[in-house]
Design a protein that fits this description.
The complex is a heterodimer of chains A (253) and B (384). Chain A has 253 residues and is mainly beta. Helix content of chain A is 4%, strand content 54%. Chain A has 2 helices and 24 strands. The N and C termini of chain B lie far apart (101 Å). Classes of the chains: A mainly beta (253), B mainly alpha (384).
């Protein structure tokens, strides 16, 4: 069993993947005409790792509602590593895959605000969906979602939720970007992300930094990993029919 | 004719020819614009030297959300280093429960400005910081409350004593924030290096774009000098942002602000968009006018215009190329006319605009000091 080491709030010191959302948007740009069909393919098992070159953590003081949110400092975008330096909560995506397995798209996704933290921190979704937003805290939260467009961002919705257990639902449809940034206007350390995709070949790494993508058509693909605190990094993976390919994506040395 | 004279003659003929060209009319109808130039040294008030302690205090206060009414939004939340020292959004987020109706501008190189906010509502960095921190749509704090909070933080008490020789005060806090902002400057853009003599710093396309900027496109009429702004006010026919048009809270925020300026309802209810500089002067001639924004650090400060309606520099250039959009105030500038740029010319202009940005100024968020523990006389006197 892995004993996890929490590199809360660390960020990479190397410029090539310095957490740029603009770079991320470009890296995660996808073909928009995905064609689903029967696939007799293989799969990819992989790990996302992080090198030693981490700079100081970004921490934000918990300046209000301490009886609910806790004391001290919080980290908007934690970089959580295993003992083997596997990176938790990286989104891994096959880039520009035009056809593949059928995708039973979920139409509804959830996000919960509890103890002034968003759950889940990161998830992936189709380019349009309904988001159910629950505030479990007896304090006002103000969820503010943005579509990332290059270096800019555009408000998707901005909802105040003053009541505990208040639920709101909101239709989300992106126009130009592929990443959704979620803040709380009432608690500036709260952060969550949704990466959208035109195809189902996406995964989020587990606490060991591992991921698995199944039913991939045979061929060679670019595999992109993205983390909000680190930016993006890619590798190539060659998949053969009825076989599992191994992939390692490394941020830094 | 010797070679030097021949070159001079050709140059003169060229200038005359350019002056006679249609699109140049608007440029030269105005007074001669200040030439583009590298940035000079940062102006610093003699009584506010940028000492290490003063800048450190200003840095901590800039990042501290406790200098807002509900303790949740600091200067940094609308001027985030990760977002070009703006907030990256088309329209600024505003104080919790509100939604601002204008774009948040970058702090980078603001030390050089004489007019702050889109309508030039403040004339110093210190006044801007005060106005933003206390404004209902931004920091929404009473200065007295801010002072009391700072007095409960030992690190601040110590720093104020060392820098100003007194307890924390709101006035000195604004001075310190301004001192910190004077350190947030960028002067290593390819354009700067080119002007200083490095002829390899700008590509051929960027140099062609500069020529267009100064001639056919006429940008220099307003975007001139080292900061690429004349700090004057113009209505250039920027279209309303759909987010403003469709979101009542954005409109409420604008009308609250207008009403707070003493402009009567029968006047402001007719506005379908931001009246701009008019808010400050209440002169009809200023309706829909906004201060020319500086163009430095532009690559990092999208989206563009007072309402963030354009997400890319290409969209900005297309907007100017078509002569701006329709105006509802009747004050649109004569400078804004169709440019008829070719595709290559548009690309060159964008390249030049990109050459005005240097290294991205990333800044690690400092770890803020906690509140101290107050000891009230709870067991004596009236608190017994």
């Amino acid at each position: 069993m892995l004993s996890r080491r929490d590199m809360i709030g660390a960020s990479m010191g190397f410029a090539a993947c310095g957490g740029s959302l603009a770079l991320a948007g470009a890296a995660l740009a996808q073909a928009s005409s995905y064609v689903p069909g029967a696939v007799i393919g293989g799969g990819i098992d992989g790990i996302v790792r992080v090198g030693d070159n981490l700079s100081a953590a970004e921490q934000i003081i918990i300046g209000k509602d301490n009886h609910i949110c806790g004391e001290g400092h919080a980290t908007p975008d934690p970089v959580t590593l295993s003992d083997e330096r596997g990176l938790k909560n990286a989104v891994v995506m096959i880039k520009d895959i035009a056809r593949g397995k059928p995708w039973a798209k979920r139409e509804r996704f959830d996000i919960v605000q509890e103890k002034c933290v968003f759950h889940p921190y990161i998830q992936f979704a189709p380019r349009s969906f309904e988001l159910s937003i629950l505030n479990k805290d007896p304090v006002l939260h103000n969820i503010h979602a943005y579509e990332i467009i290059g270096r800019a961002r555009r408000t998707l919705f901005n909802i105040a939720q003053p009541q505990a257990n208040q639920v709101d639902r909101h239709k989300v449809a992106l126009t130009r970007g592929s990443i959704i940034e979620i803040d709380c206007d009432a608690h500036n350390w709260m952060s969550a992300w949704i990466v959208t995709s035109d195809h189902p070949y996406v995964a989020v790494t587990d606490s060991a930094g591992r991921f698995a993508i199944d039913d991939v058509p045979a061929g060679e693909f670019e595999l992109v990993a993205w983390h909000p605190g680190l930016g993006s990094m890619s590798t190539r993976a060659k998949v053969a029919s009825k076989a599992r390919a191994a992939a390692t994506i490394s941020f830094g040395a | 004719m010797n070679p030097r004279s021949a070159v001079f003659a050709l140059f003169t003929v060229g200038i005359v020819a350019v002056l006679l060209a249609g699109p140049m009319r608007s440029v030269h109808a105005q007074k001669q614009p200040a030439p583009l130039a590298a940035l000079p040294a940062v102006p610093v008030p003699p009584d506010q030297p940028l000492t290490a302690d003063r800048v450190k205090l200003g840095e901590l206060l800039f990042f501290d959300p406790r200098l807002s009414g509900d303790g949740s939004i600091g200067c940094v939340d609308c001027h985030d280093p990760k977002k070009g020292w703006g907030d990256g959004n088309a329209l600024s987020r505003g104080y919790p429960g509100t939604m601002h109706w204008r774009n948040s501008q970058t702090v980078v190189n603001s030390a050089y400005l004489k007019n702050f906010f889109w309508g030039s509502g403040s004339s110093t960095l210190e006044a801007q910081a005060h106005s933003a921190a206390t404004g209902a749509l931004a920091g929404n704090i009473q200065p007295r409350l801010g002072e009391e909070r700072m007095k409960q933080i030992a690190v601040y008490v110590d720093l104020f004593q060392r820098v100003y020789g007194e307890k924390p005060s709101w006035e000195k806090a604004m001075l310190a924030i301004a001192a910190y902002e004077r350190k947030v400057t960028s002067n290593d853009a390819p354009f700067d290096r080119f002007v200083r003599g490095d002829r390899t710093a700008m590509t051929a396309g960027q140099q062609r774009g500069r020529t267009l900027f100064e001639t056919k496109a006429g940008c220099i009429a307003c975007h001139n000098g080292a900061l690429l702004t004349d700090e004057q006010h113009y209505n250039i026919g920027v279209p309303p942002n759909p987010e403003f048009v469709t979101n009542p809270q954005r409109q409420i925020a604008m009308r609250e602000r207008i009403r707070g300026k003493g402009i009567p309802e029968q006047v402001y209810l007719k506005f379908d968009r931001d009246p701009g500089r008019y808010l400050e002067t209440k002169k009809d001639e200023d309706l829909g006018k906004f201060r020319t924004p500086p163009l430095r650090y532009l690559t990092y400060t999208a989206p563009y215009m007072h309402n963030g309606v354009f997400f890319t520099l290409e969209e900005v250039v297309d907007f100017y190329d078509r002569g701006g959009d329709a105006d509802s105030f009747g004050t649109k500038s004569d400078l804004i006319t169709p440019l008829r740029l070719s595709g290559q010319e548009k690309a060159d202009l964008v390249s030049f605009l990109e050459s005005l940005s240097g290294t991205e100024l990333r800044h690690e968020r400092p770890t803020l000091p906690p509140y101290g523990v107050l000891e009230f006389p709870m067991t004596s006197g009236t608190f017994k």
